[in-house]
Amino acid sequence: MNVFRSITPVRETLNELFASDPTRADRYVGRLGELRIDWSRQPVNDDVLRDLRMVARKAGLSDRFSALMSGAVSNVTEGRRVLHSALRAPSDRVIDVDGHNVVADVHAVLNAMSTFAARIRSDERITDIVNIGIGGSDLGPAMAAQALQAYRHPRLRAHFVSNVDGADLARVLAEVRPESTLFIVVSKTFTTIETLTNARTARTWLVSALGESAVRDHFVAVSTAEEKVVEFGIDPASMFGFWEWVGGRYSVWSAVGLSLMVLIGGDAFRELLAGGHDVDEHMRLTLVEHDRLDDNIVVTLAMIGVLHRNVLERTSKAVLPYAQELARFPAYLQQLDMESNGKRVTERGEPVDGATGPIIWGEPGTNGQHAFYQLLHQGTDVVPVDFIGFARPHHDLDGHHDLLMANLFAQAQALAFGRASATETHRHFPGDRPSTLILAPQLTPRVLGQLIAMYEHLVYVQGVIWGIDSFDQWGVELGKELATGLAPLLAGESVNKSSPTVDPATAAAVQWYRDHRTMPS
Ligand code: F6P
User: Fold this and answer.
1) Ligand 1 atom closest to the CA of 137, numbered from 1
2) Chosen domain end from 241, 269, 297
3) Domain range holding 236?
4) Would you call 401 a catalytic residue per the annotation?
5) Considering only CA atoms, which of 412, 123, 97, 64 is closest in space to residue 244?
6) Does 278 reside within a domain?
7) Catalytic residue, candidates 194, 271, 325, 339
8) What is the mean pLDDT of each run of 10 residues along the chain (521 residues)?
């Protein structure tokens, strides 16, 4: 039987739930580090929460989590351990993998990164850092560099180049000068075509201005694949390593965060790690030490997500930060959640029993209010929302922040409680639209670490419930393979419509492209 049938959804609307139990505004709120998390506007009561936690218990969540944290092969389809939590463990922790303490390795790299970051930060000749990477080798550092811009070194500007579209790199090269730019090439595998193409072009640009010898001072690499880094032409002494057990979308805590560390400094970067560790500790204490699912806030949020997806059949979730600095946070979460839980078969390769990961999307408030909130309020789809806001901004412009936060609180209220209009249907706000409200005193490195780790664990909990491997990403392979096969055709090789790898529609599109690409504009 589908386990989700054991969950009986509430019949009452949010208006009715609050009317019958005003204490839910206090009871359905929890603290996770500095985060105040409020799920009172979610369609749950004590009975539904009990049912949801029972599903989590039956899935063996505490044992699964314990195994994950102690280095079991939790990425089964790739046969890998999943130990990103070790990246934010304090130096006196021991996480033993095959008789070896990986925390010691982590801190050795962190120390090397700190020394390097301090050197660059005090080197007046360097003004610009260009991070070249894609997916997890871009989104984490790019998102965090923007989120923590208030902490950035005043002389340093960070740029992030990811797209193989030359427009991305060309834009950055037009803004920087070879003699004052540091390129950080980030790729776990060092085989990713977008990253290698951008890195080669950047290298040629640098060498044509300063000569081959400049590569040593202006290029560093972050990777797990030393021999490929060397093949590319970067000295292994200029490489920062990490490990197979760090998944790309979980890697911002590792050397993948080097550009961020150079920008905000070693101490602030360690605060980010401490924030991640705060959440790891919450998970460990509640699940591993005490097996108390009820006290685990991340499990509560994850299971509310399961309620939306598997019982109420909601297909998407919006993440709406009321902080301009978090503009890239929804994009970051898209990879974290959709690459992890966008799966249709279980770990064992059988079809899943019900829906899996939702579509994640969002934009900062208040901009979104003037774009897509109409659908959130009156559309035919109900979209669960995560609102994120902060008590104190990093600027001192009078009046703005109260207005921003008033909008956040107003939106959560309007969605939940609506406003009836008996006479004009188009002015009727139905309400009963769910949201979670996440607040923190300020967007500091530690708070950002807590936010990221909270979502990481939420995604994992849901993956366990759905029985999928949240740590592989086979779904991105086919497109890569086909693009590699098509590239020579675009460059001039003859298009063979009967080729088994090129379907007729693609062959016709390629032919059109070849006919048009050399035409004068
Ligand atoms: O998109 C697939 C993917 O493998 C991501 O999981 C990863 O973050 C990205 O490509 C980049 O990979 P790499 O760091 O190896 O260049």
Assistant:
1) 14
2) 269
3) 84-269
4) no
5) 97
6) no
7) 339
8) 90 97 96 98 98 97 96 96 98 94 98 98 98 98 98 98 98 98 98 97 98 97 97 95 98 98 98 98 97 96 98 98 98 98 97 97 97 98 98 98 98 96 85 98 99 98 98 96 92 69 92 86 59
